[in-house]
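Model: Ready when you are.
Researcher: Fold this.
Model:
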Amino acid sequence: MTSSTFPLPRIVVVGTGGTIAGAAPTATQTTGYQAGALPVSQLLEAVPGLDTFARIESEPVASIDSKDMSTALWLALAQRIDALLARDDVDGVVVTHGTDTLEETAYFLHLLVKSPKPVVMTAAMRPATAISADGPLNLLQAVRVAGSPAAHGRGVLVVFAGRIHSAREVAKTSTFSIDAFASPETGPLGWIHDAQIEFERRGERLHTVATPFRLGVREADAARAASSASSPGEIQVAPYAIDGALPDVDIVTSYAGVTRIAVDALVASGANGIVVAGTGGGSIHHRLLAGLSDAADQGVAVVRASRVGAGHVLHNGAASDDRLGFVSAGSLSPFKARVLLMVALASGLRGVDELQGAFDTF
């Protein structure tokens, strides 16, 4: 068989900056570097033989340290990825990103991108100028996964240190290790070793084309959503486009001796939602709880998550959540719960039933 009979997949590599594109004064320096210093085209040059298994295009969307990621850039990135995947000649997209907020960006795209084609995110813990930089191999593996038919329909994936993770489940778990990402409660979806790609399972939650959240809704979609009968908590097609700034949603943490000062300040500033990183299974100090209860009474969406890093927060119904007007985050971290709450509010979901339905579904 010839390559003309079965052409190589076309993969677009989208750069956003991060450590993978970082540069330091010396090759022995892995801290104090400038993130996003190198263009994505230069990152590709450091991966030998890339053109032997994919036809590569590249384009920059940003050149930032991912600690400075913004919701405006999330929206722009999702729009650009949707446009690229709409091309018949594009088989997948790889996004290079910083590690600090990669899990948040990945989950946002997991909810918003409207294509079954693979979107694979990758990053690095060492700058591109460092001895044994991990970026080139991570990028190589990400491109290979993005070009694999087995990656279709799995939502947004994160490829890092030979493992393939779901965007919903992945988290950064180390400040320095080159094996810095894990899926704490579920484990990875699969792995890649040289040219061998193995998927061991699928994520069960709805994602990408199966979610009602979208950046732009056709009038026919809106009319169909308006005319559809729905039961409490059922998710329908979003009634309007997410075409502007996302709602203001912030995170507060429960800990020994915490006050309600932060909650009251957020409410006074006009916050649309608050996620609380509770102790244990989502428990909340009584002073913070009083502030959050008052916030919910004033129409602020309140979601209970946990600061633990694994496990889940159960919806306790009439015992507390329903009485206080709270939503439980389930197995989502506080940071991903914030992402889903912003997207849900921007899509017109309101009230405990509708919001809890979104957290139970996605």
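Researcher: Now this one.
Model:
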Amino acid sequence: MTSPVPIAAARGLCSCHVCQFVSRRAQGAQVAHCPRCGARLHFRKPGSVQRCWALVIASYILYIPANALVMMETGSLISYRKDTIVSGVVHLWKTGSWMIAVIVFIASVAIPLLKLFSLTLLLISVQRRSTWNPRQRTRLYRLVEAVGRWSMLDIYVVTLLAALVQLGSMATVKAGPAAVAFGAVVVLTMFATMEFDPRLIWDPLQKEEFHD
């Protein structure tokens, strides 16, 4: 277990959530404001865990229609297809586009699910005040934060195809209802990552408690 190290909050130092300016705040003070931008100061984001849980649960719920409903509809004079994310991956694989199929599967199925599992693990460990591998959990949080935007690959693909492949009555490409749910999952997980306060990972290693 990592040995306790004095943290900034123990010295009365608080980072502004708006301008990131670090200033001194008395721990017993009821209300304090940033001397630079005037925003209210908190040692930790108030309600961070509760809001993050709400966003993660909403993401789990929307993840089901995002994968069960039609993501993209493609039609021509010869054929008409309706594909979910998974059926689209299978179709790409069977038609020989293995590399594209793997990329779409990783970006649109694996990454969103792994993000949800990672956020769930972080939330549970924080609520249980776990001291297990804080460095690794902090790196996990940074990884989730970094890869979040790349989960929009399917939406980008559908948008580009709809713009480039429209040939009047000869061919059509349009987004299905799953696109809305999938986009909502990506956005909600990004908001959940923003709401999570990674400093909570390190608090169990300290003797002091920091609340507003």
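Researcher: Key takeaway?
Model: The CA atoms of residues 29 and 212 lie 9 Å apart.
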